[in-house]
Amino acid sequence: MYDTILVPTDGSDTAEVAVDHAIDLAEKYGATIHALYVIDVDATSYSLGTEQVDRIRQGHLDEMPEVKESAEKATGQVADAAAEHGLTAEEHVRAGQPARAIRKFAEENEIDLVVMGSHGRSGLSRALLGSVAEHVLRETRVPVLVVDEHAER
Questions:
Q1: pTM to 2 decimal places
Q2: Could you tell me which of 46, 2, 45, 42 has the C-alpha nearest to residue 21?
Q3: pLDDT for the residue 45
Q4: Cβ neighbours, 10 Å, residue 55
Q5: Which of 38, 48, 49, 130, by CA, is between 20 and 30 Å from 83?
Q6: Is 118 exposed, middle or buried (0-12, 13-18, 19+ CB in 10 A)?
Q7: Interior CA angle at 69 toward 67 and 72, to 5°?
Q8: pLDDT of 26 above 50
């Protein structure tokens, strides 16, 4: 039923709870996990200049070690957790608007299920733009399991 499971992650506690659920499902179905970190170019454009945002969009993360490190840390946590259970996890980094990037990744990679936290790092952007999870639920054509941060692990 589920051969490929996408876990969008930002390294937050909520994302970690979603990872636990994704691993449980991957074990049951023998699925491959895809860990996806999306660099939110809208949020980073306030803290970085437009030149840096353009570099991110073009995939030049080597020129931005702090951004690359955050992405690798978040996806690495998913890969490490999967490996502890004998599972394969592929790590991916994209730049863009998170919900749109998640949807596009799911479509392009024939993802069978998206497992994500109800909210991650948020703040003002979440209040103004709405929840990424909500947008993914409305805009994706694959099943989405949204896990609450307070769910039992």
A1: 0.82
A2: 2
A3: 46
A4: 18
A5: 38
A6: middle
A7: 110
A8: yes
pLDDT at 7 over 60: yes
What SS3 state is found at 128?
helix
Identify whether the C-beta of residue 64 lies closer than 8 Å to the C-beta of residue 44.
no
Q: pLDDT digit string (tens) for 115-125?
A: 998 865 544 44
Side-chain half-sphere exposure of 145, counting CA atoms within 13 A: 21
The region that residue 30 occupies, defined by phi over 0 for left and psi between -120 and 50 for alpha, beta otherwise, is: left
45-74 pLDDT, tens digit each: 445 555 555 656 555 555 566 777 889 999
Structure tokens at 64: 């931005």
In this structure, the number of other CB atoms found within 10 A of the CB of residue 131 comes to 16
